[in-house]
Design a protein that fits this description.
mainly alpha; 24 helices; 2 domains
Length: 539
């Protein structure tokens, strides 16, 4: 029977996924291999490529007929995910960038202590075991990375991350436990990892000098991700054209809201910023609290019981590669509903001028809309609500076109509901943030289809988004490292806004009903699949 065959296939796929990617598994709350790091050898990557091809063939043989709507959606979700992986396999990023090798041990240890799903003694043993495997991961990088394919930009990005990894392994990890003996054992393992990272730096320096590759994915592959993975009707150039139109439309809206030239008003607002990282943290905490009170008072979405979102400085190793706020969800298969909203903390050792530039990117007028995006009712509300979906595949597989689209939709929805009206500067911040996401569409597509160079993209962000140059560089490097992620925000948002109009027009419920149903579909369906799930039953 198709339904039984499909259920068996999903269970087998997830078992293989967790066995193959123990760091992902533990971050999701599956702790069976909490002391293991992923295998990053050439043979392992070749095995993953074969697995993708095998699963594409297997799923294609399970007909949609005989499956109910949820099974059909899950089948198409998994097919879309695998088609995306086929593009990534073809690109061979494991031969092109050191990020995954440097970051594996960092993420693997950090998430263990973030979620704390094991007793402290077991947790410390798992973390120490992972730290001891860092030298192996870095040896695999030496074997796999090809100077002819590597981009010097991304190698230098990994060098900064490697420096942060040394401090993280040597100084931060041993302090994560309360027992002195456990801390001492972690210090030994952390020292081995730190020494391995130090020994890896000369390799990265040499690789950066010899790197001859480009970070551009290429127009054909980029378009295949949009069409086959995200199930969108636009290729890269068509999407770029949509982004350009949105840049102009939002600029017109800014001009309507501002008395006088909007760019001059925005430039003045950018200078009204926190003077210390601690003041910035307090401002984000206050904004997140106010947003939560607003959505509760006006019943805009149903908050799950026991949810909590703490506002914290970004992790040490993340600060050098990410210059904007971020969110870390509670483990989907764990018991907690506590998420973490990480604010963009300056890197260790940053000069006073670098700190000031980082703080300028968190000017007061921008903080409320960022807090809406990351916490209430953005990522945090979505991802703690998604846990209520009982289909395990949807906790593991997802797309940023849904998750980032929802978070940006939340910014606009809160504006429509009057959240920013008493503070006109904050409304300007929301509109400028939306325009920035439209700029991201233009920059990301242009970079990856080869129509724009790195420095040009940095210059545009400095000029058009008001970002300090270090922040702009970190942003553009992020686009280079993760093709299509930057376009997902506004693209997904516009689709969610269109779907809302259809939902309300069919009389299926009120605005809160739409929000509740949408965010409980899972971590992130491609938007055409989300629309299928929300169609009235008679259709």
């Amino acid at each position: 029977m198709p339904r039984e065959a499909f259920a068996e296939s999903v269970a087998r796929f997830l078992d293989e996924e967790f066995a193959e990617r123990p760091v992902l598994a533990s971050s999701l709350g599956r702790m069976e291999a909490a002391g293991e790091l992923d295998d990053l050898s050439q043979a392992a990557f070749e095995g993953r490529a074969a697995r993708v091809a095998r699963w594409l063939d297997r799923l294609a043989k399970i007909p949609a007929e005989g499956l109910d709507r949820d099974d059909q959606v899950d089948r198409d979700l998994l097919l879309a995910e695998l088609r995306g992986r086929a593009v990534e396999t073809e690109w061979q990023s494991w031969r092109r960038t050191p990020d995954g090798y440097v970051g594996l041990g960092l993420a693997g240890v950090f998430t263990l202590f973030l979620h704390r799903l094991l007793p402290e003694r077991e947790l410390a043993a798992a973390a120490a075991a992972r730290l001891r495997q860092v030298p192996r991961a870095l040896d695999e990088a030496r074997n796999n990375l090809d100077p002819e394919l590597c981009s010097g930009l991304l190698v230098k990005r990994a060098m900064a991350q490697c420096q942060a990894a040394i401090t993280f392994a040597r100084e931060v990890v041993p302090a994560e436990v309360s027992e002195e003996a456990l801390g001492a054992n972690l210090a030994v393992a952390g020292e081995a990892a730190a020494s391995a990272y130090e020994g890896f730096m000369p390799f990265l320096e040499d690789l950066a000098a010899r790197a001859a590759g480009s970070p551009a994915l290429g127009e054909e592959r980029y378009s295949r991700l949009l069409l086959s993975k995200e199930l969108l009707p636009w290729d890269a150039r068509q999407l770029r054209d949509r982004g350009r139109r949105q840049v102009d439309l939002i600029a017109d809206r800014l001009a309507e809201e501002v008395d006088g030239p909007w760019r001059e008003r925005v430039e003045r607002l950018r200078e009204q910023r926190p003077t210390t990282p601690e003041e910035m943290l307090r401002a984000y905490e206050a904004a997140a609290r106010r947003a939560r009170e607003f959505i509760t008072r006006y019943r805009l979405v149903t908050l799950p019981e026991d949810e909590e979102c703490s506002v914290e400085p970004a992790p040490i190793f993340q600060r050098v590669i990410l210059a904007v706020a971020s969110y870390s969800q509670p483990a989907p298969f764990g018991p907690s509903r506590r998420g973490r909203f990480f604010v963009p903390w300056p890197p260790l050792g940053a000069s006073p001028s670098e700190v000031a530039q980082r703080l300028r990117a968190s000017s007061f007028y921008r903080i409320p809309t960022t807090s809406v995006h990351e916490a209430y009712p953005g990522h945090h509300v979505h991802l703690v609500s998604a846990r209520e979906n009982a289909r395990p595949l949807r906790a593991v597989v997802g797309t940023s076109f849904f998750s980032e689209g929802w978070a940006l939709y939340a910014e606009q929805m809160m504006a429509d509901q009057g959240f920013y009206l008493e503070r006109v500067d904050e409304l300007i911040g929301q509109l400028e943030a939306r325009r920035f996401r439209a700029l991201r569409i233009v920059l990301d597509t242009s970079l990856h289809i080869g129509d724009m160079e790195f420095e040009e993209a940095v210059e545009i962000l400095v000029r058009e988004a008001g970002y300090p140059e270090p922040t702009a560089r970190a942003e553009v490097l992020r686009y280079c490292a993760a093709p299509t992620q930057a376009v997902s925000y506004l693209t997904g948002c516009l689709l969610i806004e269109a779907l809302k109009e259809k939902f309300l027009a069919t009389g299926q419920g009120e605005l809160r009903d739409y929000h509740d149903r949408l965010i409980r579909l899972g971590r992130g369906l491609p938007m055409p699949l989300a629309e299928r799930c929300l169609q009235p039953a008679e259709e």
